C-alpha cells in the first residue's frame, strides 16, 4: 500500500480536499481533555493540521515515508513513520502509552487497515473515560449534471483497480456523531480548475494500480471527454465531495 502513495505523494498534497474547520470543532467538543491526538494514516497532514488547533500535541503517523516528507509542518505536530513491521506494543509505546490519547482520527484511510488489529490498538490507547475515535472520508463528488454523468462513466472504468479490501467499520464504533450504519453526511466544497481536477484524480491509488497493469485510465481521449464536459478548462468550478463521519467509542 505504501508504494501506491509513495509514487504520487506530491500530487496527493496538492490535489486532495481540505476538511472544514467545523469538523474539528465538533470533535473537540466530544472529548473532555485536549492533551494528545493521534492522526492515523496522516498522508500529508491535512487532518493533523486541523486537529492541532484544538489539542496540545498531535502524533501523525503513516507507513509511507514519501508522504511524510511532503507533510505540512506545525509546532504541535510530530510526524512519525510507522512501518507495518512494528508490533502492537511498539506502536502503543510510540504514540504515548496505554490510556493516553484523547482523540484518534482516520481521514480517508480506514479502508486500508487491518481493522481487528487497529481496533485493538485503539482500545489500548484511548483514555478511559472520554477517549474518542473518529473516522471519515468521502465516496463521491458533484459538479453539475453534465460533468457528473461524464465523470461517472469514466469512474466505472476505474473500479477493477481499487483496493478490494472492503471491511466494514461502521458497526464497530459506539457513536457520538452519526448513527450505526448511517454515518453523519458532510459536504466538502473545493474550488478547482480542470487542471486541478485532473491532478486530484491522478492522486487516486486506482490510477497507479492500473499503470502497474499496463492500463492508462487517463488516456488522451478520456481526458478530452472530461474536459468537454467541464466546459472551459480555465474556469474554476466548485466540486462538492460527499463526505461522511462516524465518531465515538470502540466497542469491539
Automatic annotation (TrEMBL):
Residues 39-134 form the Methyltransferase type domain. It comes from the Eukaryota. This is Methyltransferase type 11 domain-containing protein. It holds the Pfam family Methyltransf_11.
Amino acid at each position: 500500500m505504501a508504494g501506491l502513495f509513495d509514487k504520487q505523494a506530491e500530487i496527493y498534497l496538492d490535489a486532495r480536499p481540505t476538511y472544514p474547520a467545523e469538523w474539528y470543532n465538533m470533535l473537540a467538543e466530544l472529548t473532555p481533555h485536549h492533551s494528545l491526538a493521534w492522526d492515523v494514516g496522516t498522508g500529508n497532514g491535512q487532518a493533523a493540521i486541523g486537529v492541532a488547533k484544538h489539542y496540545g500535541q498531535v502524533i501523525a503517523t503513516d507507513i509511507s515515508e514519501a508522504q511524510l516528507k511532503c507533510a505540512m509542518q506545525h509546532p504541535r505536530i510530530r510526524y512519525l513513520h510507522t512501518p507495518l513491521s512494528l508490533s502492537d506494543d511498539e506502536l502503543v509505546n510510540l504514540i504515548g502509552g496505554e490510556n493516553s490519547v484523547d482523540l484518534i482520527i482516520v481521514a480517508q484511510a480506514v479502508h486500508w487497515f487491518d481493522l481487528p488489529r487497529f481496533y485493538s490498538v485503539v482500545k489500548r490507547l484511548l483514555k478511559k473515560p472520554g477517549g474518542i475515535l473518529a473516522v471519515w472520508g468521502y465516496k463521491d463528488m458533484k459538479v453539475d449534471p453534465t460533468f457528473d454523468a461524464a465523470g461517472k462513466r469514466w469512474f466505472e472504468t476505474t473500479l477493477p483497480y481499487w483496493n478490494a479490501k472492503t471491511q466494514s467499520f461502521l458497526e464497530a464504533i459506539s457513536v457520538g456523531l452519526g448513527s450505526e450504519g448511517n454515518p453523519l453526511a458532510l459536504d466538502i466544497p473545493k474550488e478547482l480548475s480542470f487542471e486541478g481536477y485532473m491532478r486530484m484524480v491522478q492522486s487516486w491509488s486506482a490510477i497507479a494500480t492500473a499503470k502497474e497493469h499496463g492500463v492508462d485510465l487517463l488516456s488522451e481521449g478520456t481526458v478530452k471527454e472530461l474536459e468537454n464536459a467541464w466546459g472551459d478548462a480555465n474556469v474554476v468550478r466548485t466540486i462538492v465531495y460527499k463526505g461522511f463521519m462516524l465518531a465515538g467509542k470502540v466497542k469491539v
